[in-house]
Amino acid sequence: MALNIFKYSSPASFYPLAGKMVPVFYGLAAVFTIVGLYISFFVAPTDATQGEAYRIIFIHVPAAWMSMFIYIVMAIWAGLGLVLNTRLSSMMAQALAPTGAMFTFVALITGAFWGKPTWGTWWEWDARMTSELILLFLYIGYMSLTAAIDDVRRADKAGAILAMVGGINVPIIYFSVKWWNTLHQGASVSLTSSPSMAKTMLLGMLIMAIAAWMYSIAVALSRVRLLMLEREKSSAWVQEILEQKS
Amino acid sequence: MNWGSWSNFIDMGGRGFYVWGSYFITLICIVFELGLLARQKRALWQRLTQLMKLNKQG
């Protein structure tokens, strides 16, 4: 049987599929978190220069990666919704925003908790930190804007423009440590050079990053299901589901 | 990595407050997000089923 992916671009058929996927991704997130935490605390060695404080990296870096990656995915979905006028795209964008904001907040807070013992300060207005803070404001701005406009289609359009314009901030965050002389250290992992950290440390970080991925997918799918029900509440497929439930 | 004892593990080489603080706040954030989502789900279902009943009554 050939899988027709276009079939799943309609809410009526995506809703039950997403419902089946949610528990799978929550399960995977739990498994990767347990393995990741085990490696982070019981396999990865003490850092030669930073002692044990570096163990914050296992949440800080995955959270920071997710904060940027979710933003890009959100902006692409929002843009697709704007250009192609596909219902589900805009819903996906809205479903991702709160999770992206949560990871941005986590990246900032864990950064502060890491900065204090290693740099002696909770916060510095350097390029990396400031641009990450702007990312948090972009998420909050996107959520407030889409929530403030009653007409769903107009809300989607306004949100999409904000999300896409704000997208310029993501490469700024990523390259800030290269472009400016920041207090924040350079990239620990890059595609062009071998990582500047012990293999087990890197492994712990990557597994925690996969866990963050799985969690994000589960939460976003779960949230997009609510958006589908809400937005299509008068359509036949939602009425059918409501009939079955009651 | 052998910590030797529980107190060493909690202490994190003197950085326990920062390390465990980070992990604790992250946990709170995740619990908060999931809690909010569960609440939204309940509220939506309630609203939609009520709406359906009202529609049936005409």
Give me the secondary-structure topology.
The complex is a heterodimer of chains A (246) and B (58).
Chain A: H1 11-43, H2 57-84, H3 87-119, H4 127-148, H5 152-166, H6 169-179, H7 199-231, H8 236-245
Helix pairs in contact in A: 1-7, 2-3, 2-5, 2-7, 3-4, 3-7, 4-5, 4-6
Chain B: H1 6-11, H2 16-57
Give a short synopsis of this structure:
The complex is a heterodimer of chains A (246) and B (58). Chain A is mostly helical and 246 residues long.
Number of strands of chain A: 0
Share in β-strands of chain B: under 5%
Query: How much is the radius of gyration of chain A in Å?
Result: 20 Å
Strand composition percent of chain A: under 5%
Shape of chain B: rod-shaped
Could you walk me through the main structural features you see in this protein, from its secondary elements to its overall organization?
- The complex is a heterodimer of chains A (246) and B (58).
- Chain A has helices at 11-43, 57-84, 87-119, 127-148, 152-166, 169-179, 199-231, 236-245.
- By secondary structure, chain A is an all-alpha fold.
- Chain A has one domain.
- The radius of gyration of chain A is 20 Å and the shape is globular.
- The relative contact order of chain A is 0.17.
- The mean pLDDT of chain A is 91.
- Chain B has 58 residues and is mostly helical.
- Helix content of chain B is 83%, strand content 0%.
- Chain B is built from two helices and no strands.
- The longest helix of chain B is centred in the middle third of the chain and has 42 residues, at 16-57.
- Chain B starts with 5 loop residues before the first helix and ends with a helix.
- Chains A and B meet through helix 1, helix 2, helix 3, helix 7 and helix 8 of A and helix 2 of B.
